Amino acid sequence: MPDGPTATIRAHVLTAHLQGEAVLLDLDTKRYYRLNSTAACIWKGLEQSLAPEQIADALVAEFSVEPATAQTEVNRAIGDLRARGLVT
């Protein structure tokens, strides 16, 4: 059973991946967002159209965190990205 909804990156958001981080540009608002390594990993999962559970699995593998912690972080990040209008 999914723990959170799948998110889709909006077409007006551009991404640049830089040494474990990511920079997003919202073309509608002209705002930049800098993502740390954890958030960049989550963003990459969204770019690959992965389900939140699959993104959490990637966090567990990359950062050696507990699965529940990873899932909580994925859900929180997706909620934040959605609130900022970067994903639907």
Please explain how this structure is put together:
The mean pLDDT is 94. The two termini are 20 Å apart. A three-stranded antiparallel beta sheet has the order 1-2-3. Helix 1 (37-47) packs antiparallel against helix 2 (52-63) and helix 2 packs across helix 3. The chain contains three helices and three strands, in the order E-E-E-H-H-H. With 88 residues, it is of the alpha+beta class. The protein has helices at residues 37-47, 52-63, 67-83, and strands at residues 13-18, 21-26, 31-35.
Keywords:
3 helices; 3-stranded antiparallel beta sheet; 88 residues; alpha+beta
- Biggest beta sheet summary: 3 strands, antiparallel
Strand order of the largest sheet: 1-2-3
Q: Which ranges are low-confidence, i.e. pLDDT below 50, for 5 or more consecutive residues?
A: none
Summarize the amount of helix as a percent range.
Answer: 40-55%
Average the pLDDT over all residues and give the rounded result. Answer: 94
Structural class: alpha+beta
Q: Give the overall form.
A: globular
CA gyration radius, whole angstroms: 12 Å
Compressed to H and E, one letter per element, the order equals: EEEHHH
Count, helices: 3
How many β strands by DSSP?
Answer: 3
Percent of residues in β-strands? 15-25%
* Terminal residue distance: 20 Å
